[in-house]
Design a protein that fits this description.
Strand order of the largest sheet: 3-2-1-4-5-7-6
Helix content: 25-40%
Low-confidence stretches: none
Shape: globular
Oligomer: single chain
């Protein structure tokens, strides 16, 4: 019967679509990267999605984040994402978890229930904890490296973390993963050198913060506010989604 996933079924077959429909995927970070991952997975027919992010949509997110519109500014990202995903696929089961993932909050997540984990968060400690917990649970994970301060979406690649170069975040992650005895990690990263910013937004942000009321971690708390584009973070998010779908299908 013709349905919203019929065009995808032409590529993946009925068995592949059933595998995706029965899969449960957790996405940590629903921003410029993770938001596009979440929607692409929903449009691919993933039956269960759990979204983790405690941030609210800010006007400065409109340049790159899929769920950011003037009508959603001030909403929690996971709530805006859930509403849109259910509008795409009303049969999907979507969990909206207002959680800032760190070692201190990792006990709130049962990793054993997932078929795949997507790491699209910014903090190194959170990323490392996600990778460790996924390994302990035997759940595959893919991790996004830095997508800020970039303008060349064609420089994005899929690789093992130990084969990466140029990306400063990947360099730190390699060092920390070696200490933890983690031998491999699939990542999406960019070989484009970081662009030198034209202006320092931090001072202006401190003087005129536009973060929605109730925002837990405002930009004023950051050491540096990265530049971002409308195409590099989304491209990274879509690549992440493609790898998840491919891996789930291959495990059919």
């Amino acid at each position: 019967m013709i349905n919203q996933f019929s065009r995808t079924e032409l590529l993946l077959g009925k068995d592949g679509m059933e595998r995706l429909s029965g899969a449960r995927v957790a996405i940590f970070g629903i921003g410029g990267v993770g938001g596009y991952t979440a929607e692409a997975l929903a449009r691919s027919g993933i039956g269960q999605l759990d979204l983790f992010d405690d941030d609210k949509i800010c006007v400065t997110n409109l340049n790159r984040q899929l769920f950011a519109t003037h009508s959603t500014v001030g909403q929690y990202k996971v709530d805006a994402a859930k509403a849109r995903i259910l509008d795409i696929n009303p049969d999907a089961a979507v969990g909206a978890h207002k959680l800032f993932y760190m070692p201190e909050t990792s006990g709130d997540v049962d990793f054993s229930q997932y078929d795949y984990i997507v790491d699209a968060i910014d903090t190194i400690t959170g990323k490392l904890e996600l990778i460790v917990k996924s390994g302990e649970s035997g759940v595959p994970i893919i991790s996004s490296m830095g997508a800020g301060n970039k303008l060349d979406a064609s420089a994005l690649e899929v690789a093992d973390i130990y084969s990466t170069s140029v990306c400063p975040l990947a360099r730190v992650m390699r060092q920390e993963l070696r200490k933890r005895g983690i031998e491999r990690l699939k990542v999406v990263y960019s070989q484009e050198p970081a662009i030198e910013l034209k202006e320092d937004m931090h001072a202006g942000c401190k003087a005129g913060c536009v973060c929605p009321p109730g925002t837990a971690r405002k930009c004023t708390h950051r050491r540096q506010i990265p530049g971002s584009s409308a195409f590099v973070p989304p491209a990274a998010g879509l690549i992440l989604a493609g790898e998840v779908v491919k891996d789930l299908i291959q495990h059919t």
